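Progress narrative, Year 2. Work on MFS general substrate transporter from Gonapodya prolifera advanced from sequence curation to structure prediction during this period.
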Amino acid sequence: MVSWGIAATCMAAVSSFPGLLVARFFLGALEAGSFPGYIYYYSFWYRQHEQAARIALFFSMASVAGAFSGLLASAISFLNGTGGLQGWRWIFIQGLPTIIIGILVWFYLPNFPQTETKWLTDRERYIAINRLPPTAPSHTQKHFEWSEFKKTILNPWTWVFNVAFLCCLCPLYSVSYFNPTIIKNLGYTSYIAQLMTVPPYVAAFVWTIGLSISSDRRRERAFHIIASFLVGIVGFGMQLGLDANTGAKYFGVFLATMGPFGTIPIMMAFRTKTMRGSATSAAISTAAMVSTGSIGSLVSPFLYPNWAGPQYVFGTIINLVLYGIGIVCLLVLHFVYRGVEEGILVEEEDEASVEKQ
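Result:
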């Protein structure tokens, strides 16, 4: 957090396009390990059927950030010229709070239940440790093993997960990058268009939390992800098929935003449950899925070129096709790991006896 906060803040000082590219490269490189690291961290503390809701609370801050980014962009646009800085430079100065919070996290975020003495009593530590299944990663395991790395990367189901996650992230980046442009093409003026991006992100926040809680309670992953895919399909379909009805097309923006955001936490929880064995496998499988999915951030900007507006037929069709591929991947993974889903109930009985003790 500290390092990429510094990189983000430095982007406010660039004076040339090559300088911007260098700063952006370091920002991406320093941030890359954060999200899979967060998911790996959860596996040390929470049982599998508790993870989706917790990941959703964490990940939904992205949709909250998306909502506030529209508000902040509108407000910061009025700072243009203040202190001799253009408005876009003030946007990157927002990296300063990230640096401060990163320093606080170093001191206050607990590490492992096995070693935590500041926040937990001995009894609470006993429960936190023994409620986890035997397959959960442990801090006592080796940090990295080449054999487990190769085994995980060469597993064909690893790549089915990776492709499915790419099908989640490409639509997500599409709406993140281009919602303001799409909304502006509905007839709203520039700063009003920024403000109109806020309600879809609020809806995405509610949808993501609710769907993830349902997934945890029902002990089911694949069909909840598919349900969110279907919401996204309807949203992109409405954007593609509607011309004049601004209200209906704006509602399509809601659905197109809710769809991809709702898939991410459940995909991460699904993936962590399927990994049994060493800490290396758990860490690498999550990192491989996130890194493959991040290809969507490279692809999405090219799906919505200016000449394709206002319908953006090409990009919308690509996202619809990706959703279809994602549904096929999820159906395959559901049947491959059906026994894993059923095994949650058996583990839950063992964990309940520990809590009673």
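Residues 36-85+142-348 form a domain with the Growth Hormone; Chain: A; fold (CATH 1.20.1250.20). Residues 342-351 have pLDDT under 50 and may be disordered.
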